[in-house]
């Protein structure tokens, strides 16, 4: 049985050609329930890949902590930038 072409709607982002990208994005579900489902699927994939494993390590938790540190820095950058140039004497 020959491989049937996968419909563009079911194609993963990494398998989409650059010319197909606008139509692929237009087929996505951007409703609140669609976005919630996408976040839930991403969370489930992360949980099953890094947390719910037989031989777990600190790697999965370290990624979450590193992400938190980066996002915190980005959110506080304006405040930190002004503190960097402040004179204390």
Poorly predicted residue ranges: none
Tally of individual helices? 4
Derived from helix and strand composition plus strand pairing, the structural class reads mainly alpha
Shape: extended
Query: Which series of helices and strands comes N to C?
Result: HHHH
Radius of gyration: 21 Å
Helix content: 55-70%
Strand content: under 5%
Number of strands: 0
Whole-number mean pLDDT: 84
Largest β-sheet summary: none
The termini sit apart by: 78 Å
Fold topology:
Blueprint: H1 21-26, H2 32-51, H3 59-75, H4 77-85
Q: Could you provide a short overview of the structure?
A:
With 89 residues, the protein is mostly helical.
Main traits of this protein?
single chain, 89 residues, mainly alpha, 58% helix, 0% strand, ATP synthase F(0) complex subunit f, mitochondrial, hydrogen ion transport, F1F0-ATPsyn_F_prd
């Amino acid at each position: 049985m020959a491989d049937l072409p996968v419909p563009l709607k079911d194609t993963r982002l990494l398998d989409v050609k650059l010319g197909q990208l606008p139509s692929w994005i237009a087929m996505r579900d951007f409703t609140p329930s669609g976005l919630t489902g996408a976040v839930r699927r991403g969370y489930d994939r992360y949980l099953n890949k890094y947390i719910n494993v037989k031989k777990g390590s600190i790697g999965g938790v370290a990624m979450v902590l590193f992400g938190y540190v980066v996002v915190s820095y980005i959110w506080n950058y304006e405040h930190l930038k002004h503190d960097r140039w402040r004179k204390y004497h």
